């Protein structure tokens, strides 16, 4: 779904977690994914500044590539970063950084797709090689498609193909039977080609490819004003998006510009993104049994792929604390937390 992270995974363990400093002057990094592009609206309309002023702090907004944003967060060059739960676990928590999701804004509800030519089913691809970004949510999507299709991972081979080569590699492959895992807008473009079928997508695994805003847990505890300001601005924008009318159209136009797509393309991607429009719906989701089950599935996949580090003897090596304070895994090594914050 996001830009290439394979190289980042290989170096994640080298990063240490120094104590975060709360000084009232913060940087909110973001990257170009449809679920995070409303951040540009927060900046352009002054919504973020309004909530920052209300909390007596300053927030600078800075755009990065996805990998670069995670690197910047780990290096403490930014204070907040949007990330998937899978990448927060394998790239941030695995590096020893205790981090918290204070806003979970959406989940992929069809934005991530497993596309094929020569068949319209996962079973029709048995025995073939699937291309996509290894150790990412694309890889996870394929794994879940295989499992839910009643098949085995050993029935397929997953081969890494970096984001820049996904579209060209798939298009230039003249095989009669081929497939790739990718995300929008790449998937939307490929779907326009003759014979391309959607054999599995993230709408079949609701809540599993989850996106949100992360900050260091020590900083969240020391100065919750940053989380409150971003949460307040975000959910004000979500109310606008959900409310319809010209204000929603203006927001969508900003999202389209930020995502470098047309307004119709942005609307198509927003339709396959499930947003939590209020703090209450977010908190309800994060305390649900379904969320805990989804998180367990993601964690187990990461362990099976060796993404939790060399010291991980079992899937519970890194503890994950849910919004109701229940801990999945090692309670003495909690490094990933769900701490939903609502503006006062």
UniProtKB/TrEMBL annotation:
Keyword DNA repair attached: no
Gene3D superfamilies, sorted: Periplasmic binding protein-like II
Taxonomic superkingdom: Bacteria
Keyword Acetylation in annotation: no
Signal peptide: 1-22
Keywords: Signal
Location of the protein in the cell: Periplasm
Similarity comment: Belongs to the bacterial solute-binding protein SsuA/TauA family.
Name the UniProt record assigns to this protein: Sulfonate ABC transporter substrate-binding protein
Lineage of producing organism: Bacteria, Pseudomonadati, Verrucomicrobiota, Verrucomicrobiia, Verrucomicrobiales
């Amino acid at each position: 779904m996001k830009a290439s992270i394979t190289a980042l995974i290989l170096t994640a363990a080298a990063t240490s977690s120094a104590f975060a400093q709360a000084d009232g002057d913060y940087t909110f990094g973001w990257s170009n994914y449809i679920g995070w592009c409303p951040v540009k609206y927060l900046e352009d309309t002054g919504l973020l500044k309004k909530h920052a002023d209300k909390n007596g702090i300053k927030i600078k907004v800075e755009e990065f590539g996805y990998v670069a944003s995670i690197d910047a967060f780990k290096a403490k060059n930014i204070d907040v970063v949007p990330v998937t739960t899978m990448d927060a676990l394998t790239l941030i928590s695995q590096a020893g950084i205790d981090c918290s999701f204070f806003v979970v804004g959406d989940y992929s509800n069809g934005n991530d797709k497993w596309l094929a030519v020569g068949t319209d089913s996962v079973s029709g691809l048995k025995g073939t090689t699937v291309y996509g970004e290894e150790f990412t949510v694309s890889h996870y999507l394929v794994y879940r498609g295989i499992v839910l299709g009643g098949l085995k991972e050993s029935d397929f081979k997953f081969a890494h193909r970096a984001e820049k080569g996904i579209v060209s590699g798939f298009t230039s492959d003249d095989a009669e039977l081929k497939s790739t895992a990718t995300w929008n807008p790449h998937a939307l473009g490929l779907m326009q080609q003759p014979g391309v079928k959607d054999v599995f997508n993230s709408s079949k695994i609701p809540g599993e490819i989850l996106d949100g805003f992360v900050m260091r847990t020590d900083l969240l505890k020391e100065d919750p004003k940053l989380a409150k300001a971003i949460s307040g601005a975000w959910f004000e924008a979500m109310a606008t998006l959900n409310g319809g009318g010209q204000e929603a159209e203006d927001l969508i136009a900003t999202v389209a510009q930020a995502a470098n797509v047309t307004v119709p393309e942005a609307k198509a991607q927003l339709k396959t993104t499930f947003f939590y429009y209020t703090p209450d719906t977010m908190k309800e989701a994060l305390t649900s049994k379904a969320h805990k089950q989804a998180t367990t599935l993601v964690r187990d996949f990461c362990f099976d792929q060796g993404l939790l580090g060399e010291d991980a003897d079992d899937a519970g090596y890194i503890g994950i604390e849910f919004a109701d304070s229940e801990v999945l895994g090692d309670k003495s090594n909690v490094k990933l937390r769900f701490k939903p914050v609502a503006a006062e």
